[in-house]
Records
---
Amino acid sequence: MDFTEIDSKFRYSGELGVTLGERSTGFAVWAPEADSADLLLYRSQEDYPCEVIPLKHIGDGVWRYVYPMRLDGLYYNYRFTYGDEITEAVDVYAKAAGTNGKRGYIADLSDTDPDGWENEDWVRLESPSDAVIYELSVRDFSADPSSQIPSLLRGKFAAFCVKDSRLPSGEPTCLGHLKKLGITHVQLQPVFDFEGVDESDPKSSYNWGYNPSNFNLPEGSYSLDPADPELRIRELKELVAALHREGIGVVMDVVYNHTYLTENSCFGLTYPKYYYRQDEAGRYSNGSGCGNEIASERAMVRKYIVDSVLFWATEYKIDGFRFDLMAVLDIDTVNEIAEKLREINPSALLYGEGWTGGCAALPGEKSASKQNARYTPAYSYFNDNYRDAIKGDTFRDPDLGYISGNYHFRQSVVNGLLGSAVWAGSPEQIINYCEAHDNLTLWDKLLLSAGGCHDDDRKKMSRLAMALVLLAQGVPFIHAGQEFLRSKPLGNSKSDHNSYRSPDIVNSLKWNMLDKNRCEAEYCRGLIAFRKAHPILRLRSFWDIEHAAQVLSSPDGTIAILLSQSEDMLILINPITRAKMFMLPDGEWHLHVSDIAASNEPLATYCEGVVVPPISAMVLIKKPV
């Protein structure tokens, strides 16, 4: 179907959803081809409607009604008639809902603000390259008993507000660990309302959350009481405030590329077909790989996505957005998001996956893919090329990467360290990583690809991978638990490739591993602090890098890069299982990163040459004359 004429005739720029006045409640919904539309009011989640009110078509495809009193505390849905078809739908703009999101809820959102919320502000950055992003799931973060979070709060928003959880050894877990690690931003896997977990019995099932249901309200399974529509809103705000108090920003993982349901989603029931792309035969296109794809290029879909992002940024003080399968979205939409978002928060982080999950109906030249990164300059993209060069092909378990013995990846790793990606317009557009929620964890990948190695060597590989991410030009990204060798074992020497609905025993962070692998975690912490202390690792343009970086000659398979700006920094990489001698440029060089430690204080001093241990990185800084 061609909706171009609908966009031309019925484009609407006003406010949609529920608006509360001093003595009134307004309702507005866009459904231009409906024969009629009714407002259904409910006293609870279970009743029949207590009142059915016909909505009035006011033009531009909008149906509206203003109730002459405030209706805080009531539930509501809309009913639409399309010929012989009658549908009931949750308001696509609903900002609160009851259990499992089946009915919208009318709430004064100011009543959900925690104490001091009016003073809450975003975490500011001068450049995306100054960020260190840490991806986690709300549930995984505290679900395991080893988190030492009170049992009632495990897997919930409220766990982030516990300041003093510690292992018996005294090592902090959860919020304390994040603060100690030194990351700048937490990326939360989806926290909007999603399908796949029964909110009335959340322990009975598990889901990452990439099954969108209601985009503008929080997921109830993360709340202490999913039946209380306002509590989940307050709890998410309290989570944001708790992280902000520690100087940590919050990035929201958003999934505007598809919905879990299609015809029976709130969008499909409100205005059939409009919100989704179709192929030439009228079948739903599946660029998401999940059964449908959102038609972001259509006027009112674009408006919806932009409105939604701005709502989360303003109402919840979200500091940034990670877009799932961003190449399903069109360039104009993501650029409009960036323009309007950065008017209110100039340092908002914006990044995404620069690919689709299937064949999308959107023409390639209009896609917000990493190949089109130059046309979306406000966005960063995941550098999967660098990821696979570091550890080996993500989708072929036995394949080796640079850290595990495939030295043919040397040039690709050099390119990664220098922020050189053919698709990027600047290093600020590059997200460097070697592990994320998808696919095997790095440790599990090494167990399968480097299975013949001793654990000590695999730990060296893991430390080297962390160094390659945190020493690279661009934006570093760490998966929760990666710093203490997170694993997702299934038993029988197998690991979980796709744990999106695997139980807590697979997905939860096992905080007791932090004691076992404390050296790895401390190494990561030291690298983060070192990166923060040296602007030369966070250059903002290719011109800066070109004038600051020099690749030096080094033994076969190894890497030597000299960075010179306000200081001289030498990065030495030896992935080989034997120690290698590197000749040093003239001068006295202080060691700051070794095979086992990273520090802003010198660890040793070298002149003329240095031996780099097997499977390790070294960073030295020249003492000023």
Note: The longest helix spans residues 229-245.
---
Amino acid sequence: MNKKLTLVALSLLTSIGMGAQTIYDVTKMTEKDLNGTARFVGMGGAMGALGGDMSTIATNPAGIGIYRSNDAAVSFGFSSTGTESTYGGNTLNSNKNRWQLNNAGFVLSNKIGNQTALRYVNFAFNYNRAKSFNKTTSMEGLINLTPDGDVVSQTFQMASQAGGMFNEGYNIKYIDDNATTGNNVFNNPNTGWLAAIGWGGSLYNPIYGDENHKDRLTGFGAFLPQPYSKFRSRETGGIDQYDFNISFNFNDRVYLGVTVGAYDLNYTKSSIYSEDYDTGEYYDVNSWTKIDGAGFDFKLGAIIRPIESSPLRIGFAIHTPTFYKLTLATNVFLESGIYGKNAEGETEFYKTTVDSYDHLGNNDMAYDYELRTPWKYNLSLGYTVGRNLALGAEYEYQDYSSIRLYYPEGDEMSYENSQVKGMLKGVNTLRLGAEYKVIPEFALRAGYNYSSAAYKDGAYKSLPYNSVMTDTDYANAKSKSNYTLGIGYRGSLVYADLAYQYSTYKSDFYAFDDEYLNKTEVTNTRSQVIFTLGMRF
């Protein structure tokens, strides 16, 4: 049996700079949903050059310059998010429904006159639910064997993080020494939490003095039958976006706009991963993480009608990175039950628990850091045919490999940033939309979005040797498609719009990092209905 860990207060942990972020965390916080007014969503968000909708405040700020009257609107939405996962012949479904306030804002239009180049100066404010993290994921099944017939287990990743496998100078002796002396292994910058809880639960025990010890684990591992694994996670929260805009109309041909954006981010994830053996041995890892913080950015935009007699509009926009200051809080609880020898050499069944929360003075570990998202570039086209048909198209680009993480003091998180550079890539987004007015008061809309994948082939969740993260799961999301439909009514004062959006993408899910672990195939879907009620005056 391994020596049991003695856990004491972890108050010093925040001062030693232990790794706390992965490429999967920063990608979640960079992505945005297609959201806003029902008209904007119904047209697939392809309104950057057309303008005249308050949701363009967040894509092309110059779109607010199209307004010639005041506007106030509020939007409500109902969404149903689903995941279907298939592993080892088992298919599981998870669904989550939610009502929310999608959008609320106003535009104040100020006419300067017809005799000067500057015709209008407009001011606007808009609240938007930029991102929803609400999602549940489940998978289970008998873990596959390697091509050579060896067992695959999360315990190998625990032992690997202990350093006994690959990191010379950061090996198992740091955990062993602390367990022996009664010192707090969680405060040792040469070890990570995953390695520590595995050792505390007696889940691995590399044999010293053997260069091949990575394949020789006692207690758990290669000498046991195939484990049956189960995974459950629940993610909640979102990003609330608050945009403030000023825009200008020059000669009804050139429109310029500036938007200052403020962001409120909150994200919570709770997960449980377990492995059960037909010997009756088992272990469960319960991980909990919460990220809170705020950020800001600037958006600059322009719309030009290059030919006075033509309705063609060309839009350009550039968004600065969003500069976030964030706080991560985390805790972990592990329970294991395995057979081992007692002092008399007799076999006994040992139950062990490792609970970080109990030894933090009933507090979570807190970790401050800064996140800088990529620059965003947007090109859009708009065209109207008479007074009945409006067509919009947009292309947007973000280089996710330029995401950067920093410590509060301003120093780069070098390990995490190297992973971002090596495993993320540029994301291309295409938006198409159309609106047709059957009669002046009634319109039909349709749209389509496509976003390419952010992850390079072979991306994985790389935890540094001193990471505090214990949720080892990750999913490599593939390209995403959004299909939208909408209808709208325009009265002399009041208007109402309704939109439906269906989003779908596939991802390859892994409960932990192992080159031999088979992927879980996951299909992610989201259906959303948005209703907007507004007034122009």
Note: Residues 145 and 151 are 5 Å apart (CA to CA).
---
Amino acid sequence: MFYPKVQGPATFRRTRTAFGGYRHELTAAEGDWYDEENMTDRDWPAAAARGPRYAGPDLGSADGICAGDALYWTDAEGRLIRNGQPTGLTLTPGTARQFVFMGAHLVIFPDKKYLNTADPADFGSLEAAAEAESPVVTLCRSDGSPLEPSAAGETPPADPGDGDLWVDTGAETGGLKRYDAASGLWAAAPEPLVRLSAPGVGAGLKAGDGVTVSGLHAPEGSPAQARAEALNGVHVLTGAEADSVTFPGLLPAGFTAAGTVRLERRCPDMDYVCQCGNRLWGCFHGVDAEGRTVNQLYACRLGDFTNWQTYEGLSTDAWAAACGTPGPWTGCAAYDGCPTFFKQDAVHRIYVSPNGAHQVASAAVRGVRRGCWRSLAVCGEVLYYVAREGVMAYTGAMPVRVSDALGEADLTDACAGVLGDRYYLTAGDGTGVRPTFVYHPARRLWHRHSPNGAVCWAQKDGVLYWQTAEGRLGLSGPSELVAAVPESYVPWYCETGMIGFEQPEQKVLSRFLLRLYLGPGARCELLIRYDDGDWVSRGIVEREGVHSVLAAVLPRRCDHCRLRLQGQGEMRLYSLSCVLEEGSDNSWYFM
């Protein structure tokens, strides 16, 4: 007589030896973490806790930092600090600012000031202004010698001599002309220069500056009255000394100006600025200094960031163009040799021409979200930024969303930095906190770190720096520039997705096996959660080194379960195995 054989429940083992990153989706794949904090892929395919951050000094302000030849920031008094030492440049405190490098110069907006990084004693303003009371206005030649026409009017003199100069004031034929006795004709002479002479009239200005002249008036009834009014406007100085300036122009006669004459070298107000092709490029939307409503793009003169009003018909001239797309600008960056400007729903790329005929190409695509201009950063030859729909990767054509793994996080007020081949992003995620997300483009892995309070980032010599809203400096590693203290133990956790979600039957988890490494003083706690219930601890591991841990659990029938590892200190997880038994498809719920 034989007794019937009883078949035991089917048992299967699920083993993971390659771990992904943060994927906050209900159906997160095996090896990904549905929720995590302070994990990294630096030991991939193993999962590991990130290294310690370093706490730096209190900077005194949260206006911004930048890194080039040195690390720069501003203190509470607005002084520009270079590697911890104050420079002579003082800025307006309490202003979020942009630092742009152009050659050896650091240019700072919205202050419109610069610092020569090769000679920190050389600093100043992009703008300049000079005033003079009743300057003497005369004509001169290009060599500076005085020029005195023998006559002026719409008709030539009746009996001219050879070489005589006549200022033709006719509307169509006007200009300076010289008489040639051999031919008996008046020929056009080289354009003269107008000289303004008065104490201090050229203070702070230099030859080549594009300046706006205002307040220039000839005495009432003077023969130069009409022509003097026409000299008010923008001119390019051909010469500038402390007490005189010259620029192209024509007058029938010299005179002494009535009142105060003002000369200004102006830099337009700009929302965002970048450097590309040895020029600074900027954008502005709103009411400018002259009261005009503009939606404009700008470029300075080639190689000269102080001049934005030089228009001489040369390829090196400054440049400006109006933009037709609505809405304010939200950010800009130099990418792939093109200044690239963003609105929330558009991207404008400027294709720089060597002859000065720059072209603007616009595309109605997902642009930078308002308030996220500091999220623009190039990592691995790709430009990343935060749009309203998430994090975008832009290669010059159509942006592609790369933040699906972050779930429905609503990223706001984002700022970003790059260290090596990783993109670091700090942003509000709709939960009231500002976590830091780290993206590895080659592996397409995200990781979620605890909040670090960053409002701006900078990278120098393999160390990533960030400034917090409270004005403190944070570091990714030790630095020779500033003293910093590392975190003692980094708290971390990682939580799997639903185990058994793809199988309709009930399951029984009997045990799971981990192979992991713990550093000195580190600890790891194992927890399990059945069917969205409470987390149940299954023990704590504190033994240093690499070893396997077998965790037996009380068999419990469930539809699905989750595992969670949490602890502090150095940890690497090499493999995770779960042993499950299949149950029936009966459940407590019937329909």
Note: Residues 129-265 form one domain.
